[in-house]
């Protein structure tokens, strides 16, 4: 389904998308539906709603249940049942259909006018009768009160065929050389014909006399219009009792009041193509007119455009479903288009689900993106030398410019400017270089003390600021570096973090890869600071110094990788007493003893013990005194255990009678 909007009016093309070939098996169709996204998104409102090659005309029965379409090749008529949403029957014909009409409320009575002068009648079961008219016909109308068929064509006469008597009646003689179209007013049954000379003649079927004539050719021409040929009448349609719409071969639609010879309104399609279809939408006082390129919907009183539809293929005819916003089009294409416009009216009863579908789509609007088209102005066309394509199918007019195929645009632009690709390539390379520059290490000015900690806080602060900005729009909290309370930590050397101390190793037992990267970045930043070139220094000295420094760095990294144990020196602070390393040896002995012995030693030593390490840290062990209640409870438990030991009896005497067997007592079995 394709959604478009013209003049803020939503138009839903229900036939948009790929159609599957008839010769494919059901299994293959299911596989394609699973793989192809376009086939999955299509809506098949009526099954097999298409023709083999071309559809020439389409109509709806008066009861609204059946849709009949005529097409080729081979010439055929297809009837679709809207209640079943599928094809009801198909009948092949001997020649192409010029026009057809439905005489009954359903499909039981049909009349076909063929291109070979034959008139064919069909009943519910199929072909019923065929006759022939004297001249080639172009259109016909049915007069219900008298059961007469009026045929117009390549003749000045209007042939009458009475279906009640089954014979031809006297013809009506017009002043025209040829008549193209005809229509009968549904209220007072006035019969009108449109001639190739641009005139409309009106006849009264009761007396078979002409009652009026309209000259539409001169009225359709505006001031300053270049006339290449005399406008002929190509479409004719009555509305109510006094209004008639006339379409010309030059693309104008004229609205007349039967009481006046001057048109009430002239609407130009601006395509200079013959008008092939006219319909009225009485609920909103609109006129639906079409030529082979576009369908225009406009107000019949003011002529203001309501909306327009421009299919991809040429249009042969338009049919408006009664009392709804749905239209069907017969195209120069196998697929017959179905358009639904909610602004015109609700969906028909047999497809009422379309209203819910369109309401859901309107609740979640999506922006329309033209991926395959390029918007160009008239100035762009002049620069490309494509002004001669204006008016052709390669350019589609839109607002102040045109849409054209993006492939054609690239091809023409490559021919006009052959070095455009080189310029594009250089721009891309320049963008890549700029991106690489931004990704380089950009270290901010670090303090003299705790450089690595400052670098870590900078990275964490940037990450937190990004998270806060994503979650909510607000200002990030100030970092430690910017807080005056922690300012001394990065200025006074007494606050320097010793990463070689035992406390630091206990708090950070594992050196993460992030920390290693941070150290590497810090060394790189120090190199950049040290490599600042003084004024007047030769470039050769710079290169030699860079080589020396890089060699020194490699040596340092190799030394760091070796597992060498270096001696460490510690400073004894003022007020501390130096002790020997015997305490460390005693500590190692205690670690080799069992846990039980260590606990006993701690219980016996009721005083707090102190131990000095080589680093100067202290370790304290505390033994808490027990309360009187705890002591009494422990004493009571000891007395209870002693009492139980005294009352315990030995079970050794039971082993002496174990081998006597089951049921034997001390004196033998059965003795008293």
TrEMBL record:
Q: Where is the composition biased (Basic and acidic residues)?
A: 547-558, 594-606, 625-645
Its cellular-component GO annotations read: 90S preribosome; small-subunit processome
Q: What is its main location?
A: nucleus
Tell whether Repeat is among the UniProt keywords: yes
Q: A Pfam family this protein belongs to?
A: NOL10_2nd
Record has Repeat as a keyword: yes
All residue ranges annotated as the Nucleolar protein 10-like N-terminal domain in the record: 1-364
Q: Any idea which UniProt keywords this protein has?
A: Nucleus, Repeat, WD repeat
- Give the protein's recorded name: Nucleolar protein 10
